[in-house]
Amino acid sequence: MAVWDGDGPIWCAEGPHVRLSGIAAREMDGTCRPGHPCPPADPKSSRDHLAGLVGTPTGKLPTPDKARERAAELRRLVDTGVDPFEADEAAHKGRERERVATLERAFDIVADKWLKSYKLDRHGKPRRQSSVNIATTVARHLKAQFGSRRIDELGRADIIAALDAIAPGKVAMRSSVFSYGRILWKWAFARELVDAIPFAALSAPAKPASRDVILSDAELAIVWRASRKVEYPFGPAFRLLLLTGQRRSKVFGMKWEELDKKAATWTVPADRAKNNQAHVVPLTDMAIVELTAMLAQPGQKAPTEWPKRGLVFTTNNKTAASGISKAKLRLDAAAQEIAGKGGASVPAWRLHDLRRTFATGLQKLGVRMEVTEAVLNHISGSKAGIVGIYQRHDWADEKRAALNLWAVHVAELIAPKAVEAHTG
């Protein structure tokens, strides 16, 4: 059948025209026929509503065959005691629930939500930027593979395909996608977005070969001298990393209120410590000299007092210094220039290798493992398990002695004659 307008005829394929009495409607152009009632209803809205009543997309009326099928369907519902309007409403709600579920489980949306939550650990503390950067790269790769597909419809074959899409030579990337992807799925599982974790039935890809580097004494001396060619805040921060052996995030996030010049200590508060326990780092004379020298203005002597508060290493007095990777490249360039003058070279290394070199150096100097771990704020090895429960000695004196011993060693390395002997 076809409807021309509100008071026009209904055309029936096998019968005469039927006119509906007592029904008035505007023409489709919004006008009214002379002598006919002119209701306020919008003609297009009325047509769309009529189409909706017979279960067709908005603005489209059914063909005669579709209209008969719809009428038969409604008759069956009535015969079985079902209200057609309630059935339509239930079907609409079901489609809406499915639409919302599809949207909530779209992989790209789930990945973005996971990445946002991943930036903080379970204690609400910011994660290391390097870890966040890897998570971001992994999320970007998986989003490119899965797009808006529902995460609960992705299985082992999809994960394998995402891993196979990575070049075979990129071993680290494959390992990261597997490790961080598994974390993402566990997060989704905890929020009932998926019913299973496909990674559980997969073997983890091979991890990249260890790139751990321990700098030799000669290389350490070159790095120290090279750091003098790198501007504040990076040059001084690199030297504090070398002198204290502490983690990069702790040094670059250092605040003046954590420092006590008179007591010669740096107390990393519990909310910044990796193991959630305040950590006291004794400051050697060399470390104090480095911190004080940063405060000197051009042409003036450095002040004797340190600021009471604020970030130690910052470029805007609001946030900790950023651009560390670029500063490390400048440090590497300066180190290679210095090494080249002596016919030597410095192997590729990372800032974390300074911490590893520091720990190895203490062992070479005869420092006990317990003391080394105390300086590094490690809870492992000799401090783990039952020993860690009952051993409450803070090793304060031993830590200061170890750091002073290390400072003396570094001072000997960077003395002009020592450098010449190592690089010549």
Secondary structure topology:
Layout: E1 2-3, E2 9-11, E3 18-19, H1 43-53, H2 64-79, H3 84-104, H4 107-118, H5 129-146, H6 156-164, H7 171-190, H8 217-227, H9 234-244, H10 248-252, E4 259-260, E5 265-268, E6 279-282, H11 285-293, H12 324-341, H13 352-364, H14 369-376, H15 385-390, H16 396-414, H17 416-423
Antiparallel strand pairs: 1-2, 2-3, 4-5, 5-6
Please describe what this structure looks like.
The protein has 17 helices and six strands. With 424 residues, it is mainly α. The strands form two sheets. Strands 1-2-3 form a three-stranded antiparallel beta sheet, with no helix packed on it. Strands 4-5-6 form a three-stranded antiparallel beta sheet. β4 and β5 form a beta hairpin. The longest helix has 21 residues, at 84-104. The protein is elongated, with a radius of gyration of 36 Å. The termini are far apart.
